[in-house]
Automatic annotation (TrEMBL):
<keyword id="KW-0489">Methyltransferase</keyword>
<comment type="similarity">
    <text>Belongs to the ANT/ATPSC lysine N-methyltransferase family.</text>
</comment>
<protein>
    <submittedName>
        <fullName>Si:dkey-190g11.3</fullName>
    </submittedName>
</protein>
<dbReference type="GO" id="GO:0016279">
    <property type="term" value="F:protein-lysine N-methyltransferase activity"/>
</dbReference>
<dbReference type="InterPro" id="IPR026170">
    <property type="entry name" value="FAM173A/B"/>
</dbReference>
<dbReference type="InterPro" id="IPR029063">
    <property type="entry name" value="SAM-dependent_MTases_sf"/>
</dbReference>
<keyword id="KW-0472">Membrane</keyword>
<dbReference type="GO" id="GO:0032259">
    <property type="term" value="P:methylation"/>
</dbReference>
<keyword id="KW-0812">Transmembrane</keyword>
<dbReference type="GO" id="GO:1905706">
    <property type="term" value="P:regulation of mitochondrial ATP synthesis coupled proton transport"/>
</dbReference>
<keyword id="KW-0808">Transferase</keyword>
<keyword id="KW-0949">S-adenosyl-L-methionine</keyword>
<dbReference type="GO" id="GO:0005739">
    <property type="term" value="C:mitochondrion"/>
</dbReference>
<keyword id="KW-1133">Transmembrane helix</keyword>
<feature type="transmembrane region" description="Helical">
    <location>
        <begin position="24"/>
        <end position="45"/>
    </location>
</feature>
Length: 218
């Protein structure tokens, strides 16, 4: 019996040769992956140390369709616009060409410099497009009647509370890809990963008031 098992094991080792990689190859792979992570985190995460873990959102640029969908939901609107986490500035540039006075808040200094240079290169005056290197959680957003946010599902609930406290009644908020969990949307554009959602703050407040009134009656 033992002989039979040995024969099977010997046969298996022939059929399924062990693919143990050379230690040097493993070490090199480790070094390359660590290096790639270092480069990625340099561009995607600087300035994040002071932000709590649950509110960290890395850089990921909007797609062309996502930007177009955002602009569709802003049609007919004017005034000041804040992009929360402006990345390379693409949403700010699209909104400023539609006539908005835009401010992009961005924590990543490399992306802020890139956006500022691009704005200068395009000849945009700061009244049309400004990039501020600041944590948007610490900014009073009450001067803005338009807000765009492409962030992450984890932060949308907390962000909703901040916006409800600060924004004027006539403000519109566009959430890119990730909707607010408890807000009734006004409309949406696109589908899948490029979908964007529009919310009018007056309607959101009145919906949430009705909800809390019915909860009190019950
Ligand atoms: C998913 S990217 C979106 C970039 C850009 N809005 C776009 O649509 O292409 C999110 C951006 O938010 C920035 N960010 C994350 N948390 C931030 C914070 N607390 N304050 C300012 N910027 C922040 C990140 O650095 C990143 O560039």
């Amino acid at each position: 019996m033992e002989d039979a098992i040995e024969v099977i094991l010997q046969d298996d080792s022939k059929v399924l040769p062990t693919t143990r990689s050379h230690p040097l190859v493993s070490a090199c792979t480790g070094v390359v992956l660590t290096g790639l992570y270092g480069v990625w985190s340099l561009f995607a995460l600087p300035g994040f140390r002071r932000i709590p873990w649950n509110l960290k959102v890395p850089y990921l640029p909007s797609s062309k369709d996502q930007t177009l969908n955002t602009m569709k939901l802003l049609e007919g609107r004017t005034g000041r616009l804040a992009d929360l986490g402006s990345g390379d500035g693409r949403l700010v540039f699209a909104a400023s060409s539609a006539g908005f006075r835009c401010t992009g808040f961005e924590i990543n200094s490399i992306l802020v410099s890139y956006s500022r240079n691009k704005a200068r290169w395009r000849g945009l005056p700061s009244s049309q497009a400004t990039f501020v290197k600041k944590d948007f959680w610490k900014i009073d957003l009450s001067p803005y009647n338009n807000v765009t946010a492409f962030l992450s599902p984890e932060v949308m609930g907390v962000l909703g509370e901040k916006l409800l406290k600060e924004l004027p009644d006539d403000a519109r908020v566009i959430a890119c890809r990730f909707p607010f969990p408890d807000w009734p949307r006004q409309s949406s554009a696109g589908s899948g990963l490029d979908q964007t959602f529009a919310y009018d703050i007056r309607n959101v407040r009145s919906h949430l008031r009705k909800l809390s009134n019915t909860a009190c009656v019950e």
